[in-house]
Amino acid sequence: MIYDSIENAKFYYNIDEKIKTALQFLSETDFTEAEPGRVDIDGDKIFALIQKYNTKPEDQGRWEAHRNYIDIQFVALGSETIGFVNVDYLDIIQEYDSSKDVEFYDGEGDFVQLNEDEFVVFFPHDAHMPGIEVEDTEEVIKVVVKIAV
Predict the structure, then answer these.
(1) Alpha carbon distance 44, 101 (integer Å)
(2) pTM attached to this predicted model
(3) Which of 95, 105, 119, 123 has a CB 3.0–4.6 Å from the CB of 90, allowing a cystine?
(4) Which residue, 45, 37, 43, 122, is CA-closest to 82?
(5) What are the φ/ψ torsions at residue 98 (nearest 5 degrees)?
């Protein structure tokens, strides 16, 4: 997992060309007026999901992980708490669904506060619990860039 401010995105460009492309897209785009939905950056290899939702209490969250995509989750407006943990420390509660590239887990992990203009990168071994309220429910605009592995 990587956690940082979008202003530091350039420090991660050398990890992978697709990650560089995704971080440049996030750095150069104003999402505050964008409509929710999918934006293709490079077809199914790199695409963004623009989301607008209200954060929720932790007991309503679920641990999830993906096998075929890296997630870069970027908060464009608002803030949320997001959980992270290596999948090896969790118990599978819903088997992998290849059509949705998701598996769900139960267990304990750590949490960080993801504020406006901050991002996290989750690799396939990183389970995450997104969309959790910081103190109270809050509207968030978040962009999730999916990068094929």
Answers:
(1) 13
(2) 0.96
(3) 105
(4) 122
(5) -70, -25
Question: What residues contact residue 118 under an 8 Å CB cut-off, 6+ apart?
Answer: 3, 4, 5, 6, 74, 75
> Which domains can be identified in the chain, with CATH numbers?
2-148 (2.60.120.370)
**Eight-class DSSP state of 44:** B
* Residue that has been written with the tokens 């929710």 in this structure: 36
What is the b/e burial string over 29-53, where b = at least 16 CB atoms within 10 angstroms of the residue's CB? eebeeeeeeebebeeeebbbebbeb
pLDDT, position 41: 98
Compute the radius of gyration of the chain from its Cα atoms.
14
Separation of alpha carbons 52 and 107, rounded Å: 27
Instruction: Give average pLDDT by consecutive 10-residue segment, the chain, 149 residues.
Output: 98 98 97 95 98 98 98 98 98 97 98 98 98 97 98
Write down the pLDDT at residue 5: 98
Task: Tell me the residue type at 110.
Answer: D
